[in-house]
Write a structure and sequence with these properties.
mainly beta; 6-stranded antiparallel β-barrel; 5-stranded antiparallel β-sheet; 0% helix
Length: 251
């Protein structure tokens, strides 16, 4: 796929990437023109930002945070100095991936004229056994319907939805592969009950509880964080600076 880039003569370097892919570009005086599908377009003729050839693209900026590069760190949040709140972010390190909101679920909030967002793990990152959101329960002793009994008392870190369908952890088992049993409805003593059963374990299979990876998030761990900020607004947007709360990881 082609990429359109901008060269700034005053800085003598390549300054930007652009979402539009013209067939030809030229300028006439101080005005800029391009061709697409044989049609002539004049740029900067209205107040709609990031719209090219009838399609809007939004804007993004990618940068790396790498304070104390020899230390494994935890990146807790992102703080933006900007005139606009409709930002969302994707992040990655050599160890993990994370996000702050999404295109349809914006999470940056206004605090003292700044925009703050807390870094969360991806909702799909459930079965990551390097994280603290997985609790081992033990080998299954017996099962009756959707009731599963183990040798040890169920720890109180397990969350049940208590028949309201909200907030329950998920119960899994491993018979060579990891399989979902169901959402935990309740537990007492050595027995866990699920609302339903997607898969049925056998006696002796090892079972474990998986908590919501976003609710259990602590940030992003790694030597560095590659951060992409995105904004789909078609109005005037400025981004002056970005900061992150970072501390050394001792795990």
């Amino acid at each position: 796929m082609a990429t359109t880039v901008t060269y700034g003569e005053e800085v003598k370097g390549w300054t930007s990437f652009h979402s539009y892919e013209p067939e030809w570009m030229s300028n006439l005086g101080s005005e800029f023109f391009s061709f697409k599908n044989g049609n002539l377009y004049k740029h900067d003729t209205n107040d709609t930002r990031t719209e090219f050839y009838g399609s809007t693209h939004g804007c993004s900026v990618t940068f790396v945070s790498n304070k104390a590069p020899s230390d494994v760190k935890v990146f807790k949040n992102i703080k933006l100095e900007t005139n606009h709140s409709d930002w969302y972010a994707t992040l990655s390190s050599e160890q993990e991936q994370g996000e702050i909101g999404s295109q349809s679920n914006l999470k940056f909030v206004d605090k003292e004229h700044m925009r703050y967002g807390y870094i969360r793990r991806l909702s799909t990152d459930k079965l990551n056994f390097n994280e603290l959101s997985i609790l081992g329960i033990g080998d299954l002793v017996s099962l009756t319907g959707n009731d599963y009994t183990f040798t040890s008392t169920i720890v109180n870190q397990v969350s049940a939805n208590n028949a309201d369908g909200i907030g329950g952890d998920e119960l899994y088992f491993n018979d060579g592969t990891n399989k979902l049993i169901g959402v935990i409805d309740s537990y007492t003593g050595q027995t866990i009950s699920t609302a339903s059963s997607a898969n049925t374990p056998a006696v002796g299979d090892f079972c474990f509880v998986v908590k919501n990876p976003q609710s259990e998030s602590y940030g992003l761990r790694g030597y560095y964080a590659e951060i992409t900020l995105k904004n789909d607004s078609t109005s005037f947007v400025e981004l002056f600076a970005s900061n992150s709360e970072v501390f050394k990881s001792y795990m």
